[in-house]
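User: I'm curious what two different proteins look like when written out as structure tokens. Can you demonstrate?

Assistant: Sure. I'll show them one after the other, since each token string lines up with its own sequence. Here's the first protein:
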Amino acid sequence: MARQTEGIPKKFKNLFIVDGITEEKYFNAIFQRYKLSATEVKRISNSGNMAVIQGLSEAHGKEEAEGKTYDYYYIVIDRDELTESDYDKICRDLASQPNVQLVFSNIAFEVWLLAHYDTMTARPVDVLKDRENLKRVLGKKLGVKYKKGDTKQLYKIMSNSNHSIELPLKNTRNISKINMAYQCTNVGVVLSHVIG
């Protein structure tokens, strides 16, 4: 990588702001696999609407402190305890920022992980049942109890197909439009754009 000239901010293409350890480890691994050195991942402690606010605030602080700039910001969140009005507010807040995109999974990021094995369908979600069911089914696919943020398990999931995002992208094609009432994820659409 070229040396940074003094006083000139170092240019990075993408910053992924995530609210969970599983997302942080997954995106770091996938970007490493595709050698995307101009893409960084930052995990924050808040989730939902506060993740968006805190994430962008910390990102701009990081840019200033480290002399970096980013072209695009991706805010990666799950539904968690997000309400319809929280979601609407996030969409309104992000609408005025063309270089910021919401990356959303309903009910959890594990919808995207399970898509490395199975075709996912748009169906009404039940927050409590679906979260546990996703973990149980992923555990069956892995042959061991699924643990959030387990790097070895994430690599095994990514290695399920020859191309780490091609199969899950195909398996989530019908649920890539964000929807608060139905199972969805747009992770694949975003990754296919970033990876190219």
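Here's a second, unrelated protein for contrast:
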Amino acid sequence: ASTIKVTINGTNDTATVSSATVAIDETDKAVTTSGTLTSTDVDNPDNTFTPDSIVGANGDLTIDANGHWVFTANSAFNQLNVGDKVEETFTVASVDGTPSTVKVTINGTNDAATVSSATVAVDETDKAVTTSGTLTSSDIDNQDNTFTPSSLTGTHGNLTIDANGHWTFTANSAFNQLNVGDKVEETFTVTSVDGTPSTIKVTINGTN
């Protein structure tokens, strides 16, 4: 009699692992996003991963043994304007070493500018009065002190503003009919280049 011995050696059967692709909008604080990967593995328990902590260019990602991952940005990324984005892909692995990826995209949003306003008062004269000034803006998404040029027709006069925030109001009358204590007022709305509104209020005071 003789025997035939057959040995079947186990091999690593690659797991089937999910991946993740997420996109989030930047805010005034460093954003955080999370999720859970899954794995199916004939050799190992399903949904089992190698815990890891990865430092990226735009933030850090951690993943635990159950596939739960958390991404935390390392900046508020307020400098990103609408249409701008930063992307990063992290590579993680199931417990048997099968790689997968978590791709995080941070999209820019419009952060409202801080814009000055103006309130001016002028006395009427024998001619239509003119007054002017300059608004300022501070904007993390756009160049500071940049405005949407505009020409506005009001009830008592016209106002123009240029791209640098310099505005000029020209009355459409001498307003000689105004007596001491009388006045006419008008408020014009203008915007910085990102659309943040501001106002210019002009008062024309009567004189004797």
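A detail about the second structure: The mean pLDDT is 95.
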